[in-house]
Design brief:
This protein is an alpha+beta fold and 170 residues long. The protein has helices at 19-32, 41-45, 49-58, 104-117, 132-140; strands at 9-13, 60-66, 69-78, 87-95, 122-128, 144-155, 158-168.
Length: 170
Amino acid sequence: LIHFRTLTMNIRVLQFDGWARWKELRKQSILLCPEAFASSFEEECGLSDRQFQDWITKNVIFGAFIDDRLIGTAGFFQMELAKEKHRGVLFSVYVTPNQRQQGTAYQLVEEVIKEAKKRVVQLHLKVVSSNSSAVHLYQRHGFEVYGTELRSLKYEGRFFNEYLMVVRFD
């Protein structure tokens, strides 16, 4: 008789004491998906621990956990200038490869949207236009493409366009 333990995932806001785990997952995300992030692995490795700690305290970063293992993240921040405070930004959505296609990214984005609705009237993001699964994920949440930033990123001699996407809450 074999018993399989059901692993349950939970999503929660990362607290200050979770900065090191987030740092490691962020570095992994950039290493495995370099064309999906503006920052390079080398740039991320050059950041101080204090900079990662500041990211945790200045933004709302959700973590998806199975048991106590961080398997995905999605971040949110509100624009700071008075004329832009009605806008927020979704950033750094990532799920570890072995946990993909299980709804984790969908749930992370859902949590960011719930948080954003409390603070802003619209939520923005940028996504590489050739990343069809990510574009589809965002469209399922109501995001619409409102522009394309041509040659937005350059990695290993290749250019990548990014879609500018928005979802409005009002």
